[in-house]
Amino acid sequence: MVNFDAYDIGSHRLSCPACSRGPRDKTLGLTIEADGAGVAHCFRCAFTESYRPERGAPLTTPSKPRIKAAAPTAKGSD
Ligand SMILES: [Zn+2]
């Protein structure tokens, strides 16, 4: 969850709520438009969240589930 109200109009960089490894790990690009709408996008994990002030609540756009490469199946166990 991104607290869009905490940021001024413009572009910001902040830590991603989904994949952040710490407060200095700022992979989330946040843009606040002049009308107060905001959009955040993480360039690492593709987390996306948008905010429309007229709706009164942030809309979270769930990122599409990624198909993970199948791990090699270990046959048998030692
Ligand atoms: Zn992320």
Written account of the structure:
- By secondary structure, the chain is mainly β.
- The chain has a domain at 4-56.
- It is 0% helix and 29% strand.
- The chain has no helices and five strands.
- It has strands spanning 10-14, 28-32, 38-42, 48-51, 58-61.
- A five-stranded antiparallel sheet has the order 1-2-3-4-5, with no helix packed on it.
- A hairpin with a 6-residue loop joins strand 4 (48-51) and strand 5 (58-61).
- The chain is elongated and about 60 Å long.
- The chain starts with 9 loop residues before the first strand and ends in a 17-residue tail after the last strand.
- The relative contact order is 0.20.
- The model has no long low-confidence stretch (mean pLDDT 86).
- Bound molecules: zinc ion.
- The site of zinc ion (ZN) has 8 residues, from loops.
Provide mean pLDDT, rounded.
Answer: 86
Task: Point out poorly predicted stretches.
Answer: none
SS field, number of helical segments: 0
CA-CA gap between termini: 44 Å
Number of strands: 5
Helical content stands at under 10%
* Ligand inventory: zinc ion
Helix-strand category: mainly beta
N-to-C series of helices and strands: EEEEE
